[in-house]
Amino acid sequence: MPTGKQVRAARVLAGWEAQDLADKAGLNRETVFKVERGTANPKPETVERIVRTFAEEGIEFTDNEGVRRRPQGVEIFEGPERFEEFYDFLYHHMLEHGGEVCLSVVDEKLLAKYRRNPEVQRQRMRELVKAGRITYSVLVTVGDFTGDYVAYRQQPAHAAAPTAFYAFGECLALISFPPKNSPHVVVIRSEPLTQAYRQSFHAAWEKAVSVSQEEIKKIKSKI
């Protein structure tokens, strides 16, 4: 959670008045002032609006009460707290643009291991699928098959590091699980690179084994 000093510094970096931030984040100006002065204990959704508003401007909060402009085209999400922010980014990107989400993951359970409440994200994505806004395909080696809105296919087990990638919109997210401060997500905004990974995903998809919802129910009943 950013401090009041960070919020004010980010606003100055963006060249905004307090009213500008209030308008863009859907808040009132007095709330912005209270947050910056540290005289209020803002609700989580208020903080989320502020962080998301600055993220859309390319500004992010760093450790030691820092603020910086995000390197253009690349964003890094490191650790469990930032992992939640990555999924917020994924959701809002697909909400705005729609299209195809492709996830290739060695062990699907790792994605839930570091989440505070993965069902929130599942419900949001489920609603986008039901509304016809997106399609969601997951290629797994080891799966927990928790997404009833997902088309699954399974690859045979093989010696591979526990990694994953998402291809969605114009974004490619590369995910690893190092021993410290895991997980580590690098999001690259590059249509050609994302398309190359998407094509690789589709080629592997054609060779993988389909997993029906009936089979998923049987698998989950044995867990």
Question: What topology emerges from the helices and strands here?
Answer:
Blueprint: H1 4-14, H2 18-25, H3 29-37, H4 44-56, E1 59-62, E2 66-69, E3 74-78, H5 80-97, E4 99-107, H6 109-113, H7 118-130, E5 134-142, E6 151-154, E7 163-168, E8 171-176, E9 184-189, H8 191-207, E10 209-211, H9 213-221
Parallel strand pairs: 4-5, 5-6
Antiparallel strand pairs: 1-2, 3-9, 4-7, 6-10, 7-8, 8-9
Report on this model:
The protein has 223 residues and is α+β, with helices and mostly antiparallel strands. Helices cover 46% and strands 25% of the residues. The chain has an 8-stranded mixed β-sheet, sandwiched between helices. A two-stranded antiparallel ribbon has the order 1-2. A hairpin with a 7-residue loop joins strand 8 (171-176) and strand 9 (184-189). Helix 1 packs across helix 3 (29-37). It is elongated and about 55 Å long.
